[in-house]
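INTERNAL TRANSFER SHEET
From: sequence group
To: structure group
Subject: O-fucosyltransferase family protein

Please process the attached sequence and return the structure record in the designated field. Keep the field labels unchanged so the import script can parse them.
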Amino acid sequence: MYDRLLNLASSALAKKEFKQQTSNLWVEPYQKAPSWEPCEERNVQSNPGKSVKSNGYILVSANGGLNQQRVAICNAVAVAYLLNATLVIPKFLYSNVWKDPSQFGDIYQESYFMSVLKDDISIVKELPPHMKSMDVEAIGSQITDADLVKEATSADYIKIVLPLLLRNGVVRFLGYGNRLGFDPLPSYIQRLRCKCNFHALKFVPKIQHVGSLLIKRIRKYSVPPSMLDTQLFGKFMENKEDHEEAARGSTKYLALHLRFEVDMVAYSLCEFGGGKNERKDLKSYRESHFPLLLARLKNATYISPPDLRKSGRCPLTPEEAALVLAGLGFKRGTYVYLAGSHIYGGNSRMEPFTRLYPNVITKENLLTPNELEPFRNFSSRLAALDFIACTTADVFAMTDSGSQLSSLVSGLRTYYGRDHAPTLRPNKKRLAAILTENGTIGWNSFEERVKKMIQQGQKVSIRSYGGSIYRNPRCPDCMCKHQ
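Return from structure group:
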């Protein structure tokens, strides 16, 4: 799609090959970033404390993949406190999309989760024996998305859910996800969400161990563990210094969450230069996977693919992602960890990217078949490895700021990263405007505009009203600001 720009990028990278790379690519560009830190005194107690008497039990069946389920867990913790209820360890619904039977204890450390939150809410592993046979749906205590609006308020829960809990002693949230808004909420509820996401959820040792192997092989040298490393790996990232390796130094790497899977591409309704065959292929995929989308489109105003692209509603292609990295000044030899599922179009679609950045690495080519075997056919456990690699990366780059993985990874890097965890968020609308000039724009101008676009997305800002505390924890309810 952008052959001329790719050639300019290739020439620019060749000229930089033997020049020293600018160090500011690997640090936060704004001095205010390290002034926000985790509040140590809140790690133990996040709210006024739990009530002695519980109003009943909350059951949660969380849908989606690993990252959607993580959000559901922390929302459920907040709701349990709000309703003065006992939370039963959440269950994960089996999805025909993700095809993963994993449950909470397969991903996260149950006992650690319960211990960290024990002073805030009561958590049990299962209902008491006399309630196990209860038909929750039959007694009217099952809550679905139809009963609660998206991002419902605390008042909605008090009005709709609490009466059922008081009457029946139990409530089940079926297909629970993003059903609790961020504002208005009491500060202690926000702090509890923060405590859950940033402190209570630790991966099980099996994931920690393989995740640590993954990162050690990328870095090629054991560096002193950071706060992020300690949170994600525990004892599995102990520093055993090798002076010979230390002299060579560790390898910095950039993790890229390239959201260009077929579902994302098809749902966007955009076109990506593949002509008639691509349009036919994506149309067929929509018909079989997104019937509700097609039904909605029948009554909607038609927006052409070029207009969708201009408005920033198209996922970035691998080619566009490579041009952004080149525009920022990342050298050709940069190690790029590629997170995510299968890229739509396979190797041919990735070719423009690997032409500029050949050192693409994945969990599949860093881990042995035996190390990966316990993770095969378990998409959430595989996703946990990508989550780890993205969170601990020297630089994290996303192509879709709306994805849950990008949101959660950004939040963890903000919370624990201090000024050493920069995140790159391309503004797709601005990038589309730049790329419309691909036939005439000079490389120096392209570089200047891309750098300005990224820097504006890296400005240090406090969480906005209604904004996700998981994505941006910079607020008094979650972090402390030091002058």
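Handover comment: Confidence is low (pLDDT under 50) at residues 243-247. The CA atoms of residues 4 and 440 lie 9 Å apart.
Transfer complete.
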